[in-house]
Specification:
By secondary structure, this protein is mainly α. The chain has 2 domains: about 80 residues, no CATH class; about 220 residues, no CATH class. Helices cover about 85% and strands about 0% of the residues. It is built from 12 helices and no strands. The longest helix has about 35 residues. The protein is globular. About 40% of the residues are buried.
């Protein structure tokens, strides 16, 4: 998205964070537990926006403004000690998993929009010499399979690469989420990215190197793609609210779903950070394939268990993950 769209999309949440920071800077006791939770979520989201703005736009004024806001918010978040820690703990143990669980059907649709094209394109290329030839010249294909794909994960020092990956992942999730208000763009983004993964997998399968492909994708890809599916699902749910707001007015429905979507996007920052760390330090490492894949499987199992167990527990309490719920 261009800088004007970026500003228009996020200015309201920055203004809200600034308002909470001003109140919390005077005395954090002025903030209710729900407002503290909202402050933490907005702080995380704005920190992600800052990272995205630094790498995408050459706008010193925007970067300086976001840097100042993140610094001031961080001072309140980390200076309020026990109350903020409790709010942070509640966010990750209740609000975030509740929001994801409440949106699970849309997350499933998001996953299907990605996975169906991925497997369809992959199987087609793996079993069709003509399809393989259509992807590019033979020399380019061979270099991609035998060298370029694997070398990508070793193209920079681990810490630098992890940071780059984190930023790229956040960018994709922002696109998938922000486009959700119109539904079709999110569906297109998910299907296009799925097809691209299918092309890569199909090329490896066409020369019998499936294990190499999965060994380079699964360590980080399980967490990474799950987070993308969740972001896409949040966007789709937000867009569907315009079509079917239920027994609420569209304005009230969008406000509620927006608070829930904000909780999801803020929580995904941690998931993307974990995926980026694995991609930077594990995927391209010299560890045996089974160890690298095992790390990815453990991370995915931990994430899904956390979301399902905590999400169902929150649902049993009547919670849906909207920020400020119960205020």
């Amino acid at each position: 998205m261009d800088v004007d769209t970026f500003l228009a999309t996020n200015q309201a949440s920055w203004d809200r964070l600034s308002s909470l920071v001003r109140r919390g800077s005077r005395r954090v006791g002025r903030l209710s537990p729900d407002e503290l939770e909202e402050l933490v979520a907005l702080y995380q989201r704005t920190a992600t926006h800052l990272s995205y703005a630094r790498t995408t736009y050459r706008d010193p004024a925007l970067t300086a403004s976001l840097s100042s806001l993140v610094a001031r918010a961080g001072a309140v978040v980390y200076g309020s000690r026990p109350r903020t820690l409790r709010a942070l703990g509640r966010f990750f143990s209740v609000t975030f998993p509740a929001a994801v669980w409440y949106s699970r059907r849309f997350v499933a649709v998001s996953a299907a929009l990605f996975l169906v094209p991925a497997f369809a394109v992959g199987l087609w290329i793996a079993n069709s010499p003509r399809a393989v030839e259509a992807t590019g010249p033979k020399a380019v294909r061979e270099a991609y399979v035998n060298q370029d794909f694997e070398q990508y994960y070793r193209s920079a020092p681990a810490s630098q690469f992890a940071s780059q990956v984190f930023t790229n992942n956040v960018q994709v999730s922002i696109y998938a989420f922000a486009a959700g208000i119109a539904l079709l763009p999110t569906a297109f983004i998910l299907m296009l990215n799925g097809a691209n993964v299918g092309v890569a997998g199909g090329l490896f399968a066409s020369v019998g190197q499936q294990l190499k492909f999965w060994g380079l994708i699964l360590p980080h890809g399980l967490l990474e793609l799950t987070a993308v599916f969740i972001a896409g699902g949040a966007g789709l749910r937000l867009g569907w609210t315009l079509i079917d707001p239920g027994d609420r007015t569209r304005r009230a429905a969008l406000a509620e779903e927006g608070r829930r979507a904000l909780a999801i996007v803020a929580g995904l920052v941690v998931v993307f950070a974990a995926a980026g760390t694995i991609e930077g330090f594990v995927t391209g490492s010299s560890l045996p394939t089974w160890v690298r894949v095992g790390i990815g499987l453990l991370g995915e199992a931990a994430l899904l268990s956390w979301l399902v167990v905590r999400g169902r527990a929150a649902e049993a309490q009547g919670l849906t993950g909207a920020l400020g719920e119960g205020a």
